[in-house]
Amino acid sequence: MKSDLTLRELEVLRALMDHNTATAAAEALGLSQPAISRTLSQMEATLGRKLFLREGGRLLPTDEARKIDSELDVIFAAISRIETQSTDLPPSERPMYLATPPTIGHGFLPLVMAEFNRRFPRQKIVADIGSSDSLVTQVAEGRFDLALVDSEPNHPGVWAEAFRTSDLVCVMRRDNPLAERDVITPRDLDGQPFVAQTRRHTVRAAQDGVLAAANAHPDAIFEVGTVVLATQLVLQGAGVALINPFPTILRLDPALCARPFRPRVAMRTWFMTPASSRPSAAVLAFMKLVRETVASQKGYFE
Which InterPro entries did the record assign (predicted)? Predict the structure, then answer.
């Protein structure tokens, strides 16, 4: 098979072959449905041929798609062998440029960076902090090789992949009467002193919708820009907060506790790389280590 298709595009094609809808393929790959649809359009444009026919909400593969898919087992098997056998990175004088928002950068990134350095001591890393919104543009422009963000990127210049899904939790002091409850619901928060995140955060829109549906109206005394500031205000007795537990739960103050919030509100954390270039071996190795680290800490975020 000779074409300019990327590995990521081939992974999307295989997922579409397996699941027959963009939504199911997106769930299987940890991507958004628009990202799957956009990738399919790019593949069809590259090849100049239709790969799937849309019929009744399903994607039916054409003969061209079946032909490509028949060759993918060999490709994916070879990649798996390479990833399993690789113990070092090719020499590179160029640092790997990483970026995250403050919560991930301060609460999770050091764990991965330190272990990455132990495994690949010759690979230099430059890490920076910024808001998820601002990092989308900077990654699209190629200023960073990889970003870990807590809101779904929707930009044609980036490739995004979800690597962690956590349910929203309610954080409070242990001496708060709500701490005696196993689960917190919107009605429990009605009239409660509350620390909200500012409206630019994905969690804010999600929590507002759930609270409004239950006609619950917490007393939002503070609106803050970071989860760290929210939890510190809760620690000082300013109220309770709804947060994405990843990665804050790893370093939650002993005076605080977190309770599951219901109905479930799923929060995703994403890898983001420039769409204009393929990730380097260092970036792929770092992403793999992130997945391993998240898996090893999984119980903290349930």
Answer: LysR_HTH_N, LysR_subst-bd, WH-like_DNA-bd_sf, WH_DNA-bd_sf
Residue 21: how many CB atoms within 10 A of its CB? 16
Amino acid sitting at position 92: S
**Hey, what CATH class is 169-264 in?**
alpha beta
Type and span of the H or E element at 286? helix 281-296
Contacts of 211 (CB under 8 A, 6+ apart): 186, 189, 217, 218
Q: How is residue 133 written in tokens?
A: 């919104």
Phi, psi angle pair for 164, to nearest 5°: -155, 135
Q: Distance between CA 137 and CA 153 in Å, rounded?
A: 10
| Per-residue pLDDT tens digits for 199-218 | 887 788 888 999 999 999 99
Give Rg (Cα) of the chain.
Answer: 21
The answer to whether the pTM exceeds 0.85 is: no
**201 neighbors 155 (Cβ within 8 angstroms):** no
How is residue 39 annotated by DSSP?
H
What fold does the segment set 94-157+269-301 form as a domain? D-Maltodextrin-Binding Protein; domain 2 (3.40.190)
